Structures are given as C-alpha cells and as structure tokens.
Amino acid sequence: MSITIKGDKGFDNKPSTEAKALRINLNPCIYGTFAEIGAGQEVARHFFKAGGSSGTIAKTISAYDKNFSDTIYGEEEDGRYVTETRLDKMMTHEMRLLKKRIPKADQENKMFFTLANTVATIDFAKKFKGHGWMGIRFQTEPLGGFNEIVLHVRFHQTEARLQQEALGYMGVNLVYGAFYKHHNPKKLLRYLYDNIDEDAIEIDTINFSGPKFENVDNRLMSLQLIRNGMTEAVMFDSDGNNVLPARVLYKKNILALRGSFRPVTKVNIDMFEKSYEIFTKEQNVDEAKTKVIFEITLSNLRAEGEIDEKDFMDRAKLLCSLGHTVMISNFKEYYRLVDYFSHYTKNQVGLAIGVNNFVEIFDEQYYQDLSGGILEAFGKMFYNNLKVYLYPIRNESNGTITDSNNLKLHPRMKEFYKFFKYNGKIVDIFDYEEDYLTIFSRTILKKIKENKEGWEDDLPVGIAEMIKKKEMFGYKA
Predict the structure, then answer these.
(1) Could you tell me if 259 and 307 lie in one domain?
(2) What is the DSSP string of 190-231?
(3) 252 and 169 in a common domain
(4) Domain termination residue (choose one: 216, 238, 258)
(5) Within this chain, do residues 208 and 267 fall inside the same structural domain, yes or no?
(6) What would the pLDDT profile of 449-464 be if each residue is shown by its tens digit?
(7) In terms of Cα–Cα distance, which of 111, 107, 131, 102 is closest to 119?
(8) Of 56, 151, 394, 402, whose Cβ has the fewest other Cβ atoms within 10 Å?
(9) Is position 75 within any domain?
(10) Residue 468 burial by CB count (10 A; 0-12/13-18/19+): exposed, middle or buried?
(11) Parent domain of 256
C-alpha cells in the first residue's frame, strides 16, 4: 500500500505548534515513540494536548535515573549522557521495540518514527546554560527505508522552564518538518524555529541521512545554519560530515588559518606546515592535543555579492580532500574568532596570518561597534594565550619582503603594535618557501576561469586534477 504525504496546501504559512501536533495526530499512518531525557517530556506533551494522540503515540519514556537509562540503552564509555552516541542508542532501541511489538499486518499501513532527545538544561548556579541532542528517525512511506535528522542545540535563556519550552516547540517542528517538509531540507531548517524566539536556542550542528536525503550535502546545510543566523560557527571533518565544534575544540591547543582558499594553494599549505612546526614546539603545547582549523568567514564567501553555493562547495571539497577540518564562521573580526575558541579551551591558541591580513587587524574602523574600541578587541584577542604566526609577503613591484620588522602601520598604532611584538605574541615564519611568495589565489582563479595554462603547479598535489575533473571555479575542459 502506497501513501503520499501531502504538503501544506490549505494551511497557514506558519501553523501554530498545536496545529502542527494535531495534523500529525490526525494522520492515521504516522505512528511512533518519544524518548526524552533531561528536560521532561517537552515534545510529547504538545501531542497529548493537541488531542487525538492515541493514534500517533505508541509510547513515551523519560528514563531520568542514570541506572534505569543505562539498563535500557547501555552504558557510555565516557560516562556522559548528553551525547550523539546516546541519542543514536535511544533511537535504535525504541525503533527496534516499535517494529517488534506492532503486528506485521499493521506495519503495512504505518510510517514509523522515533523522536529522541537527551538534554542538560541550565544548572542552579547558572554557570552552564545547557545544551542537548535531538533527533528523529522516520519513514515517509509504509515499509520504506528510514531517514534521520540529528541536531545539536545550545540554550541561551537563563531559566530552565524557558529552555524546556523552546525544546518542546523545536521538537514539534522537527516531527512536522520530517513528515511534511522533508522534500525541501533548506525550508525544513528554517521552519525549526517556528513559534520560537531566534535568540532562545541555537543549532550549531545538523546532519541529514537516509534515502530521502541522499542528495543532501551536509556541508551545505551547515552553511545554511550560518546564513539563517541559527549559529555563528559550524565545522565539518575531512569526510564532509558536520561535527560538533565543542567535540573538536574542547581542551585542545588550536591553530587556525583563515583564508578564501579559492582555490587552496601551495602558499596556504606552506603557511600551515611552517606555523604548525613552530606551534607544536611551544613549551605548553602537546601535539597529541592539538587541532588545526581551516576557517572561512561568511564575509569572505560574500566578497563578490550573494553567496555562490557551488563556489563554497568547491572550496570545501578541496580542503576536505587534503584531510583538513573546515570551519565556517560569521566572525569578520579576528578577536571574535579567538573569543569563540576561548569558550572551549584555555590552552594555547595560534593564528597563522599573512602580513596583509595582519595589518588590517590594526585598522580602528573594524572596532567602532565596541565601546572600548581597538583596545577592547585586542584585550579579548590576546587574553587567552594567543600567538600570531606571521607569514611574509613580497611586494609585486619591487620584490621587497615584508615581515614583522618592517610592516607599515598607522603612526598611532606603532607603539601599540610593539607592545605585542616584544612580548612574544607575534612570531615570524622564517623558513618559508620563497618561490611561493609569487603565488596569489586571485591570479590562479582568473587563469582557471579564462582557461589559461600555467596555474596547475601552484596548487598542492592532486588539487589541479580535482578542479579539472569536477569543473570547479568555472573551469571548462
């Protein structure tokens, strides 16, 4: 028996939470379980309140006691409960029971789902605002394959009750979106905030999987999180999977490289390798606990107008092919990037920067929105064990090489700059490849688009071949 789920024709553009829950309840084919740990049965209660839930809800469970939770879902190796692995175990266990306990004959008419969340709300001291994992595993046709949407949230309210309410609304939006908006993941993402204050809750990681999402690239969904203002930074690993920033950065030494990477060149890799060598030799840096981040800002992606998603994906795929972790952020200013890292680590942070970009940091116009101006920005930037690893540039007209000793700054900034330089906060990269100083990504990009020769040797091994094969950055064979 084939059943088609119709869209929202005839419904308001933004139905209420109650209307969404009721529509799910009145669909005789949708049937599933709710498993919620840490913030009460906040999602399930909306479906009970809406009426008609007996045809939708097979079971709700809230295994608050750790012993009960471990007995049901198994123990975690790290002893934590608010984790993605815990969420996966919850969905797997509940779906297995659902399929096992519902008669086979009834399954021919049902689209099963399991909504799960594991959450820690704000503590009594209000020191930790709380966070959580939420996910849904679901079918879009009876006996069909299972799809999955998993997301991580961070709470911004300072009352547990308000956090619970926000979680409940988002959970209903997730169930509703899974069944009625799965054909358009970008819209589904926006609808997760229906009836919720945008400042109340942040989504910093989301992954789609399953047959309905086989054409969805989760890196592109990460970009949507930033564009929609749902978070300020996202990360994905070398396999292209979205990863939780906290998991990557927590208590790590961090070396970050900001760039356009359009495309990634030998200069970028030389800057990375030489700064990494210096960074890992720092007295307080343990190489085994060091993470390298290649970061692209949203302002960089918008440098030529509206964001070109294919252009973004070209950059992302090339960096991932080299085995790097990529971060997309909304941090135009470097101090905001460093401040973000400080939320996750107190260990050494390093920034590998070219001289041109470093000089821009001393432009006071970037800090007009701060009451303390550039002094406040630099206080935040260098507060948390930050060092800058400076990569030189060569003047294209006269061949002069510029480093920390001869860079040009506004006269008012010279003494300010000296304070950081002579306190060891600025370190020159000396053993750079001098031949690479003539490589500029903008020149390479122009040659690629104009189908000119001679750009291939300026890129890391395998990158030129990938650009040609996949026709990236406007390349045409």
Answers:
(1) yes
(2) HHTTTTS-TTTEEEEEEEEESGGGTT--HHHHHHHHHHTTS-
(3) no
(4) 216
(5) no
(6) 999 999 999 999 999 9
(7) 131
(8) 394
(9) yes
(10) middle
(11) 246-474
* 282-295 confidence digits (pLDDT tens): 999 999 999 999 99
- Picking from 336, 347, 266, the residue whose alpha carbon sits closest to that of residue 295 is 336
- In this predicted model, what pLDDT tens digit does every residue of 39-73 receive, in sequence order? 889 999 999 999 999 999 999 999 888 899 999 99
Sole residue written with tokens 């709700």: 60
Instruction: Examine the domain organization and report whether 203 and 268 are in the same domain.
Output: no
Assigned domain for 239 exists: no
Distances (CA, A) of 451 to 266, 316, 461: 20, 22, 20
In 3D space, the residue among 461, 380, 392, 385 whose CA is nearest the CA of residue 432 turns out to be: 392
The pLDDT confidence band at residue 397, using thresholds 50, 70 and 90, is confident
- CATH number of the domain enclosing 182: 3.90.950.20
Element housing 274 (H / E) = helix 266-279
Q: State how far the alpha carbon of 214 is from the alpha carbons of 179, 182, 459, in Å.
A: 16, 12, 31
- Indicate whether 238 belongs to any domain: no
Q: Are residues 212 and 259 in the same domain?
A: no
pLDDT tens readout for residues 131-179: 999 999 999 999 999 999 999 999 999 999 999 999 999 999 999 999 9
CATH of the domain at 296: 3.40.50.620
Q: How far apart are CA 462 and CA 475, in angstroms?
A: 16
- Secondary structure of residue 236 in the 3-state scheme: strand
Peptide bond into 263 cis (omega under 30): yes
pLDDT for the residue numbered 358: 93
CB atoms within 10 A of CB 274: 18
Whether 288 and 359 map to the same domain: the answer is yes
pLDDT tens profile 295-330: 999 888 876 667 889 999 999 999 999 999 999 999
Task: Tell me: do 328 and 445 sit in the same domain.
Answer: yes
Domain membership of residue 262 (yes or no) is: yes
Count CB neighbours of 266 within 10 A: 17
CA distances from 330 to 232, 297, 437 (A): 5, 6, 29
What pTM value is reported for the model? Answer: 0.91
Task: Check if the beta carbon of residue 90 is closer than 8 Å to that of residue 33.
Answer: no
Same domain as 308, residue 164: no
